[in-house]
Amino acid sequence: MEKSYSLAGVEDHVKNFRPQCLVLTGPPNVRPALVDFVGSFTKNISLMICGDILMLSQEENKLPLSQRGADSLVKWLNRRKVRSFYAPFTGDRLREGAKHLLQASGLGKLKPNTLIMGFKNNWKECSPDSMEDYVNTIYDTFDSNYGVCLLRMMDGLSEGIQCQVNPGFVADEETESGERDETNSSDKDSVEMPSVADQIKTVFQSKQGKKTIDVYWISDDGGLTLLVPYLLSRRKCWRQSKVRVFIVGEEQTIEEDRKEMVLLLQKFRLDIKDVIIMTDSEKPPQAKNLKRFEDTVAPFRLRDEQQSESSVQQMRKDCPWKISDKELEALKQKSERKVRLNEIIRRNSQQAALVLVSLPVPQLDCPSALYMAWLDTLTRGLHCPTLLIRGNQQNVLTFYCHLAEGRSWKSVCRVGETACNSFLYFVYLYRRLLFHHQ
Q1: Cβ within 8 Å of residue 43, ≥6 positions away
Q2: Hey, is 32 helix, strand or coil?
Q3: Are 153 and 109 in contact (CB under 8 A)?
Q4: DSSP assigned state of 214
Q5: Helix 287-297 crosses helix 368-378 at what angle (to 10 degrees)?
Q6: Do residue 160 and residue 264 come from a single domain?
Q7: Residue 21 bridge partners (DSSP)
Q8: Per-residue model confidence as pLDDT tens digits over 41-88
Q9: Do 153 and 263 lie in a common domain?
């Protein structure tokens, strides 16, 4: 308690930033892969809270939560050597529970700044309200100035996953993810005490060997997209894995862009030398992949071209998640970019241990069904774990500026304009490389 209280005097600074994670696991033993993944980069350095939103009926909601069930899950986490708190919370739906957990979890400075969830694999089969609830949870989290991460694995995150054989490296490229709901839901207030046999080994507990961690850094988010793979690479299981950064660039300036990016990463004190420039991201996607995307969104279209304006407005009011022809056409270019980026990822990262991709921010003019189709398309056909990630624009990386030996701060101030111009130049490169093709 004394140490927690002493943190109140520590000012927020980029040097002190740690990803403090609220992880919507449901009962932690149900999604061990999600628990192990987050625990691998929060261990010993930052906060991890396993949030369990209990979606109970009105009658069940009046009953007190069973402490024995919570104690058994804490023991399960301890046996797994995961340093995490367990926080159950009753709520009518995911959005409500996540909002309250984000506001109420933590103590003083030990409060979450990043929400982590599983990808909703059954978004096409679930009820529209459930899909809308999931997307609104992401929207609210960004709106509350938190970072967001969505983890997707080919076989889902549930306890049935068999990870003695790494499911991330199956030969068939066209295999689709299992249709399991990765949202955080539970209708039980008591969980049977797991036995030792329930400690299922997941891919994140195994040594990854000399594989790669591929980062597709498409959007500037303050640096969280680079910080997470850096923290992972410091862990024993990931130490031999090489981090590769993919950015958008031009064919004419490919070498210049690569050198600028490597220099920028060095200024951020990140030992990443493998920078790949994607010069073909603006090319149109293959017809078969574009057709697959169109087939994905087809069940969610309004088909309003032959209907009156009043009918269309009523349909939009009754079914806000559906996609009108006007919206689909207005966002056509963004949709094609998602399809094209997926083609590039599948071409370059089939043998990666982990893929990180910039998470698109949900917009008010983008229906929930179209947004979920984008997320599904970005991660389609990837057999390794994929993390859709985006920070809250808060800077989380410190910029290193080397001073010549013997130079005093007074002399530095005399050449402050030069130093400032140098810093701004690197910031300019940072922004230009990331936003060039957005």
Answers
A1: 82, 83, 235
A2: helix
A3: no
A4: E
A5: 140
A6: no
A7: 48, 114
A8: 998 788 999 999 988 655 555 555 666 678 889 999 999 999 999 998
A9: no
